[in-house]
Design a protein that fits this description.
Helices cover 30% and strands 23% of the residues. The protein is built from 6 helices and 8 strands, in the order E-H-H-E-H-E-E-H-E-E-E-H-E-H. The strands form 3 sheets. The chain has a 4-stranded parallel beta sheet. Strands 3-4 form a two-stranded antiparallel sheet. The protein has a two-stranded antiparallel ribbon with strand order 6-7. The radius of gyration is 14 Å and the shape is globular.
Length: 137
Amino acid sequence: MKIGISACLYGHKCRYDGADKKNEELLKALEGNELIPICPELCAGFPIPRESIEILNDRVLTKDKTDLTQQLYQGCVSAFEQIKDCDILILKEKSPSCGVREIYDGFFTGKTIKGSGLFTRYCLEKGIPVLNEEDFM
């Protein structure tokens, strides 16, 4: 299978804080598949490190309320072009880009709410199945 995977889960240090979320157990389970690491935030041109972002009322905002919705949307379109022929995507839960069922609340409190990231929504609209790292295990 050809599987798109959040670049941070793959081990790329592309998160807002310059870290990764490499998931060795997941990568081991995916051995033998073609993996395509992808980060819509990097495709949007966001730097590493960068201010964290959250979704509030369908707007992608920094803590000081700078609206990055359009820029991230363009990153999602660009990222999709790289994974559009994948059979499935495995994306990082809670991310404002890649969260599948849970994202941060938009108030930078550290609390999560039910919801999906912008890239997840875009890919689902385009018909690509999306799981989070826990769903696959």
